[in-house]
Amino acid sequence: MVEDIKLGSPFTWTLQSPKESGKNVDEFYAFIDDQLGMFEENVHISGTVIYISEGSAVIQVSEMTPSLFPFTLFYNEVKNRFYDFKLEDVDPYQKYFCLDVASMVSMFFYYETEGFLANAEFDSDGNLDYYEQPDEDGGIGFDGEDDSFVPDQINIHLPAEEIESYENLGAFCNTENTLDDDGNLIPRGDACSVVRAETWFNTRDCAILTAWRGGKSRKTNDDNNRKLQRRLRELGYGVTKITGWFAEKDKEVARENSFLTVNLNEEDSFRSNIYELSELYEQDSFLYKKAGRDIPAVLVHTNDDTGKGTEELAGRLRIGNMEADIYSQIKAGRITFE
Q1: Whole-model pTM?
Q2: Using an 8 Å Cβ cutoff, are 328 and 335 in contact?
Q3: 281: left (phi over 0), alpha (psi -120 to 50) or beta
Q4: What's the CA gap between 318 and 113, in Å, rounded?
Q5: 281-307 pLDDT, tens per residue?
Q6: Where are the domains of the chain?
Q7: Nearest Cα to Cα of residue 28 among 43, 46, 15, 12
Q8: CA 311, chain centre distance (Å)
Q9: What one-character-per-residue DSSP string does 268-296 give?
């Protein structure tokens, strides 16, 4: 098996490959059985060997079984783990696979939105020592707060047009269906939770954008955001206010009010419409994610200074990463793309 790992050579990996290496890989198969359940037939990852370093190899994936997506990485994830790994032309949707050459064990396993929870560790004889399991709490945290919390009682009587000014109180997060027949506010504790956001990102095309711009007054930015929100709703998109921390080109990370926008009707024009609005409000870029759990988000640049019309890999969805410098806050939860 080891002889097959050569730069530029085609390569196919299956769940049975580690067994053929002659190494003790029981921990790996215990992990696979726990995470993926029953072994499927004919599961594989095929591609071309593009990098080898210190017993590790990176395969550029050309074809794979969808169920093996958790074993794959995107470019920035590989680059962050192999510092001399560089490509000139980067396709933000290209997948890569990393493995230990001697044991044929996948080096990384990405569990849902929680991050890289598995790393292969080996003993002095080259046998697999352990394949790290997720923490008991799964790695998802909301800084001590329960994201599904709904207040026991809320008694607020407001006309519909006044609700918007209270949207960030945490009791509810949008103005859709928030009043009962008597005009009372209906608390929607999960209206814009990270759990619902995760579902949207995986089932619908989504974007995060704002009309805020550095150098403009707070009043101008707020007015522009109201116009942007109104236009997004006129287009029939789902709109949720979020708080983002993001850096404009050559500037430090700063807070800005943004919108998580969902293509509810699955319109083909969604991305182009968002692009036009981002350009209209002089934004450097907006975050765009196609529907699908195995598809990363990209930053679409809409400013000449950032490479207008180009895309840059943002990464895959992660929830609860409290160490990220750039993130979006939805209630007590954080979402990032890394």
Answers
A1: 0.69
A2: yes
A3: alpha
A4: 5
A5: 999 999 999 998 889 999 999 998 888
A6: 2-131, 189-337
A7: 15
A8: 16
A9: TTHHHHHHHHHHHTT-SEEEEE-SSTT--
